[in-house]
Design a protein that fits this description.
The protein is α+β, with helices and mostly antiparallel strands and 311 residues long. Helix content is 28%, strand content 32%. Helix 6 crosses helix 7 (250-258).
Amino acid sequence: MSKPARLQFQSIRKQTPLPSGWRAEWSSHHKCFFFVDPNGTCTWKDPRERDMETSQNTLANTSAASGIGSLTRKETSIGSTPSTLDLPPRIPPLNSRRYCCGAFSTRKNCCIFVWVIILVILAGLGTATFFLWPRAPTITIGSPYFPAGISPVQYVAATTTTPAQFAINLAVDVKVFSPNYADIFVDKIDFTGFILNSAPNTPITTAPAHGIATNINFPPKRETQFTLPFTVGHPMNVGSSLSLLVGTDELMNTISTRCATESGTLDMTYSVKLTVKVIAWTGFKPTTTGKLNVKCPATAASIGALFGLKQ
């Protein structure tokens, strides 16, 4: 737009502003203005003409004094009025922008916003997982001992469905350190194991050990200690004499060999398995295994006496 044309437009605009929502655009090809209504429709006709007719005398005096005619007349004097076919295509109103995501003027800004939200959500989930996902605790098993107030060895009489058996009553102190950032509630702790024979130091499957503890809470970043009682049970097929029993029963034979005196010890394997409720559905159960030395509960002779056996 040339400087005289800009001055002409500014002067006319100051004198008679365009109706609300209308705007004037300069055509560099035709060297004149065209007008755009609030809906974006283009026209060569000045919308102020109807107002100019009522104030023609005022505009004429103003034109005579300033040497500037009405916008339409000036445009016509510059050249013939352009054809309607020469009008530019529909122009969107200035205040009718399309917004992406309801708030952004460009698709790029909308995409950036969406990705930022996704990253924030992922970061939140990652942080929550880091602090709340259960971690496997460290389990330490103490040496087995005979708990007070209960006989180390008990005789269980035979029934119509089970043979006579004896039980060795033991207990261990368990220490569990939880590395988690929140309390971990353990539904059940299973203790299982087997007494090992003298040679070749393999488990005696007829002498399983079993104990259980339930509903224990492990505070975060802290060590928890509790006592876990367990029992070694063994069926006894009683023979005519203790010497026959010792010669045929694997556990009694091991006790006879390892427990010649009450200071002897028995070896056993163990496994401690934790059932944590929040991850039980995954099938994962933190487990620790190892070997223990169990103090002999009695000599083979004293155990045989429980059954009324004689050497």
